[in-house]
Amino acid sequence: MKSKIAIIIIAGVTCIVSAAAIIDPRPAKKKPHTEWSDYGGGPDQSKFVDFTQIDKQNIGQLQLDHVYASGDKEYYKFNPIIVDGIMYVLAKNNSLVALDPATGKEIWIHTGLRGITQRGINFWQSKDGKQKRLLTVFGNSLQAIDAITGKSILTFGNNGSVDLKEGLDRDPSLFSRATPTSPGHIFENLLLLGSFPGEALFSGPGHVRAFDVITGKQVWIFHTIPFPGEPGYETWPKDAYKYAGGANCWGDITVDEARGIAFFPLGSPTYDYDGSDREGQNLYGNCVLALDARTGKYKWHYQTVHHDLWDYDISAAPQLITIMHKGKKVDAVAAASKGGYLYVLDRETGKPIWPIVETPVPASDMPNEKAWPTQPIPTVIPPFTKHVALLSDLNPYFTPEEKATWGKRLAAAKSAPFQPLSDQYETVSIPGAFGGANFENTASNPDKGIVYVLFSNEPCVYQLKKVDHTARSNGMAARAAQAAAGKNYYAISCQACHGADQAGIPGNGPSLLNLGSRVNANEFKLLVSQGKGRMPAQPHLDEATISAIYSFLAPPTRGSNVNIAPIPVSGPVVADGPAPMKPTNYAAGMKDYPAGYTGPRAAYAEVKGNGISVANLLTPPWCGIACYDLNQGILKWTIGHGTDPAVGIDGLGYPGGSSGKGMVATASGLLFATSRDGHLYCYDADNGKKLWVYDLQRDNPNGVPAMFEKDGRQYLVVVSCGPLRDKNLKEEDVPRGYLIFALPKKSK
Fold it and tell me: Which is nearest to 194 in space by CA: 221, 228, 161?
């Protein structure tokens, strides 16, 4: 095995293919659902594997085979991918690691990648396998890493980086970020990508795009907030495309490779809870959007919420299934929303398989708010959550004091499906913005028409409050002010040695680009105050000034933690840090509506009950798994998933336990799922019966598990990096990292 790996690495280093080379981008075809080569398993995001080695009869023998230790104290929520016998993970102080998944032996380590998208990564290879690339994002920067050598590909984009704020058809100075939270999806030679531009007023637009995997060039864009002359423009105020934000794909993209159709689950427009400045239906917010994956050309859409006022995004992966319907095989797509409904649509046309009825809903009593009068509610397919908070449905495990308090609040509140929020009274939305089905919460057995939804019955208690949105635009005001001050301090104290572009001056000072991936805030303070190498101590700079300079040099990106001290990384390190990229300008952003705007101004923000979502307000299950048989259009079974330690009764579900949790379904009829209670569960996919439980001994394992085969053996890998649940245990006694399970080896 060692010699084979060496040959592959040598071939990858010596085979240089220019961006202009003619490349067949199509990877070699393999049997579907036999390799976990994508975030979420495969292009259809089914999280289904056609494996039968582990089954209902031997599941009790499944055991922890080995662990790849993360080697630090970071909290990873990464879905590993396994391609051609190599597993790629995030570990060791935010390093990308390629390793042998059956042994844990490291092949290469690319260190210092703090700020990388935390949920997963994209893999692409040429048909001949000579080029293999990992596509990933750091803040607003799209980058490529050679999957064979582990090194950044500097011919990609501009010196290895593509600025994602460019190409959105809006002035980049008018918004601060275009950062994805999910890795996107590879189709042929394209990376399909969404974004998380933020949820405050004047956040950036959520337009979806495709980039060439070789050059980094943007190939197409689809405006999810339509421009004049584009379909859907009439569903917004006339100038909304200049200032409205969101309608973005921050969740899990699904691709029908045979048809070349990409399905984007889109979130709500911003601002989330006050739509007074975006009167209308607001296409393409809250839509399942089907586009030609090669061109970005519109095929169809289905909007699950009109003029969203509840943050009812679609973020879970739409499931591609084949069902028997009226005696015929039908290819469908099933989308589960944060609103608690499952929408089942024809994959080619977007038309509902069963009736979805535009149902009258309550009107808003807020000034300037025009809630949409109807909402689409499925009539045959049952919902997977509650939709009304009744006094009789109050949590029976509450203390008498809790029952009295919440009984009084529920009696005074309003609760109904799609009840608009108000500043005059509390609204109890069930599910709330954190409930229903969230990212990574769907799976399926696609050929059998079975869909699994991991959900939370998690209400939110809202009451609107008038605020100055412009003062809190993008939620970055204080950070932007500090970074702006730091820029001035840098020019006075640092620029002479390190350069105006921070790239360093030979003989004077080193490059400070990507400083945050190499040095944390505390280390930077010590380095500046005490000096290092040619740089003398700077005792005249106080702590606040040093902190401001660091904020300018190392603006934090979503998912990063610049205060975690880096650890020395041992092993086959091949590179350090991402390719050079522009620092995020947190001072960017619109501060007011565009000149000439005369319409209503969004003026309200939500106030949640006690500042939190009340995950256990109503009767259980608080978290569960719903199994749909869409050949019959029925909810086949529902179970509570996880256990609330405060109650201690099995099957009630862990309150708020679905977000960021994943499932794996197998051809042998098993369904694996992680839970916030710190356990890994295996259920009988036919009836939901619990077959096996493994105590990870750590809280809240996030990230989708993965399943793969190597050398005739089937493995399940789960990332577990949370804090110890039992504080009496010692860190060194509990596995931390990527736990890899298998059946015992057969004796020869």
Answer: 221
